[in-house]
From TrEMBL:
Keywords: Aminoacyl-tRNA synthetase, ATP-binding, Cytoplasm, Ligase, Magnesium, Metal-binding, Nucleotide-binding, Protein biosynthesis
Domain B5: 305-384
Annotated CDD domains: PheRS_beta_core (cd00769)
SMART domains named in the record: B3_4, B5
Statement: the UniProt record of this protein carries the keyword ATP-binding: yes
PANTHER family: PHENYLALANINE--TRNA LIGASE BETA SUBUNIT, PHENYLALANYL-TRNA SYNTHETASE BETA CHAIN AND LEUCINE-RICH REPEAT-CONTAINING PROTEIN 47
Compartmental location: Cytoplasm
Catalysed transformations (reactions): tRNA(Phe) + L-phenylalanine + ATP = L-phenylalanyl-tRNA(Phe) + AMP + diphosphate + H(+)
GO process annotations (BP): phenylalanyl-tRNA aminoacylation
GO cellular component: cytoplasm
UniProt protein name: phenylalanine--tRNA ligase
GO molecular function, one term: ATP binding
Stated family: Belongs to the phenylalanyl-tRNA synthetase beta subunit family. Type 2 subfamily.
Length: 591
């Protein structure tokens, strides 16, 4: 979850009164937030630089709250949105109404999009904040919100990149283009000399902050770039803005542009930026729109600050919470969460109509209204009751734990391994061939270690043994876990199967040790419901020695497992010098 750092004094000033530590903790908790840490700027710097003496540390002793917020609440990523939400929640302020400036379309600023941008970053949305009053704290908050959005919804600038500019230093109209790197020259932010775009990439490879974004465009034949009518570069998204239009404390009019590969995310990011900082505009909560003109002639005005409606019956909202309220009480609770709600009646049943503001992009469904009503009502105020549905443990999980306990009593240590493995470990290293009918293959795996979903627990235990080969003998390990195989009869095309696997490694094979374990497990299962007769039948599997392996079957011929001495070739491939015996049993078949 994202953590927002806000100064205590600024937060209290924004809330309208001071709070004790207990009061602010309770207020944040009631709203679904948590104060993760209380620290100071100096302490943060000392921790980041691993210093023990604060004598040479620059920074003040202002108390700073680190507040955890929900990952989908982008409106809470800055002080402005956080304080506004708490003021509305406590009833000291009504939810704001955001509006666009009433200017004719012909008088709007225009952003012209060239067709080449479709090769690299096809979307752009823009807006203007007029008459903004900034001080150092507001400026820092403005930059901090951009950084938080870049790390969160923007996915480290891969989906969206935000550019903010001093509009008074620029000349409209603007153009969004994609050009070869050698054709782009400008002075980047915090620099004094001009760079060609490809040379700038080399320059920033040594920059700790910006080098992690270079991969987004550096291998592209064209780079995205934004110009004004004088061919002054505003920004080279998603890397850096131009120095010419840098924002300062004297900036009065801010031009905001968001380039993106995901238009929906870009709209959310732009709405978040303008709704958070339009409160500092001369006309509070008013945003000037910008018309984006595409190369095909289509035109769109941004930002879209319109509200959208969600309607739901009262019973659908209160049912999942388990409380009884009248419709007006629910309307009041929703209003506390910045959701404008009204009640009406449909066929004699009370309904709620909710107008969702542009700040609440997390509201997508009725269940989101249920969550907000529960938060506003107070989770601690919801009466305790027994669930009407079964919430106990599944029989398979209970049975698996009994098997675990039985194997542990036999002296085996449980291990927990990954569900994914490499194709080589799952087949070739076990002397098995892949007939393409069993294993679920991972598309575009990030690493060769995770290419397939395991079809057996055997490679996992052998790999665990390999990494712990220096432990004293005997090594006795086991795992109870799922394997996955292709299954055309299932709607998802595959099925899980719970297995027990155990591995014994010593100077001698220890076949009798594994047989003793199997007999112990079979004894427990037989006492329950399974009828075993002569349950060992010889097999011919390539991962075991011939005539040193068998399958485990019930009296009706149903196979529930197999065991044997692991083949020397398999042990060599896994780098294991000592003989091993392995058993794998189908727990679901036993159940």
């Amino acid at each position: 979850m994202p953590t927002v750092r806000v100064g205590r004094d600024r937060l209290f000033a924004a809330l309208g009164r001071p709070y004790t530590q207990e009061e602010i903790d309770a207020l944040c908790f009631d709203y679904g937030l948590e104060i993760d840490d209380v620290t100071t700027e100096k302490a943060i710097i000392m921790k980041e630089k691993h210093l023990e003496d604060d004598g040479d540390v620059e920074g003040d002793d202002e108390v700073i709250y680190k507040i955890e917020v929900a990952a989908n609440r982008y409106d809470l990523l800055g002080l402005e949105g956080l304080a506004r939400a708490l003021r509305v929640f406590t009833g000291t302020e009504a939810p704001p109404v955001f509006r666009l400036s009433s200017i004719p379309r012909a008088s709007m600023l225009h952003m012209y999009v060239k067709p080449q941008t479709s090769q690299i970053r096809p979307h752009i949305v823009c807006a203007v904040l007029r008459g903004v009053t900034l001080d150092e704290a507001r400026y820092n908050s403005f930059i901090d919100l951009q950084n938080k959005l870049h790390q969160n919804i923007c996915r480290k600038r891969t989906l969206v990149a935000i550019g903010t500019h001093d509009l008074d230093t620029l000349q409209a109209p603007f153009s969004y283009e994609a050009l070869p790197p050698h054709e782009i020259n400008f002075v980047p932010l915090k620099q004094e000399e001009s760079f060609r775009a490809d040379k700038l990439m080399e320059f920033y490879k040594s920059d700790m902050k910006l080098k992690k974004f270079l991969h987004i465009i550096e291998n592209s034949p064209v780079y995205p770039v934004i110009y004004d009518s004088n061919r002054t570069v505003l920004s080279l998204p998603p890397i850096i803005n131009g120095a010419h239009s840098a924002i300062t404390l004297r900036t009065r009019n801010i031009f905001i542009e968001c380039t993106a590969t995901d238009l929906t995310k870009a709209k959310i990011v732009l709405n978040t930026m303008v709704t958070m900082f339009s409160e500092y505009c001369e006309n509070k909560f008013e945003v000037e729109p910008v018309e984006v003109v595409y190369h095909d002639g289509s035109k769109t005005v941004y930002p879209d600050l319109s509200c959208y409606k969600i309607e739901a019956p009262l019973s659908e909202i209160l049912g999942p919470i388990g409380i009884s309220l009248d419709v007006q009480q629910v309307v009041c609770l929703l209003n506390k969460m910045q959701l404008q709600a009204q009640s009406y009646s449909l066929k004699g049943e009370p309904w709620v109509s909710v107008s969702v503001p542009p700040t609440r992009s997390d509201i997508l469904h009725t269940c989101d209204l249920v969550e907000d009503v529960a938060i506003a009502y107070g989770y601690n105020n919801v009466p305790r009751s027994k669930p009407k549905c079964m919430t106990g443990r599944q029989p398979l999980n209970r049975f698996s734990d009994k098997i675990r306990a039985e194997v542990a009593r036999a002296g085996y240590m449980e291990v927990l391994t990954f569900m994914l493995s490499s194709h080589e470990e799952n087949f070739d290293m076990l002397n098995r061939t892949d007939d393409k009918s069993k294993a679920v293959i991972i598309a575009n795996p990030r690493t060769s270690e995770f290419e397939v979903v395991r079809t057996s627990l055997m490679p996992c235990l052998l790999k665990t043994l390999k990494h712990n080969i220096d432990h004293p003998r005997p090594i006795k390990i086991f795992e109870v876990g799922d394997v996955v195989t292709l299954d055309p009869s299932r709607d998802v095309g595959a099925s899980n199967n719970r297995r027990l696997a155990a591995l014994y490694c010593n100077r001698v094979s220890g076949f009798e040790e594994i047989m003793r374990l199997v007999n112990s497990v079979v004894k427990v299962v037989r006492a329950l419901h399974v009828n075993f007769g002569e349950y060992y039948i010889p097999t011919n599997e390539p991962e075991f020695f011939l005539k040193r392996q068998c399958k485990i079957v019930t009296s009706d011929g149903k196979q529930v497992g197999y065991l044997g001495i692991v083949h020397a070739e398999v042990l060599r491939k896994f780098g294991i010098p000592d003989p091993c015996t392995f058993v794998e049993m189908d727990i679901e078949a036993l159940l």
